[in-house]
C-alpha cells in the first residue's frame, strides 16, 4: 500500500493551489466543474455531480 499527501489552498474565489508529492497544480472553476494545470504543464478538465464525474486530459 502506498501513501501520499495533498494540501489545497484557496488563492481567490474559484482558484485553488494544490500541493502534493508530485508537485504543485492550479485549479480554477466553480464547484462541480474545473480546469487544472499541473507543474509539468498537463491540462485537465473535469466535471462531476452526485458521485459521477467526467475527466478529459488535453
From TrEMBL:
InterPro entries in the record: DUF4236
Record-annotated DUF4236 domain positions: 3-55
Pfam families given in the database record: DUF4236
UniProt-recorded name of the protein: DUF4236 domain-containing protein
Source species: Gaiella occulta
Amino acid at each position: 500500500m502506498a501513501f501520499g499527501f495533498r494540501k489545497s489552498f484557496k488563492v481567490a474565489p474559484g482558484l485553488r493551489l494544490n500541493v502534493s508529492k508530485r508537485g504543485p497544480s492550479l485549479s480554477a472553476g466553480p464547484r462541480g466543474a474545473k480546469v487544472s494545470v499541473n507543474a509539468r504543464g498537463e491540462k485537465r478538465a473535469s466535471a462531476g455531480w452526485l458521485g459521477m464525474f467526467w475527466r478529459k486530459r488535453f
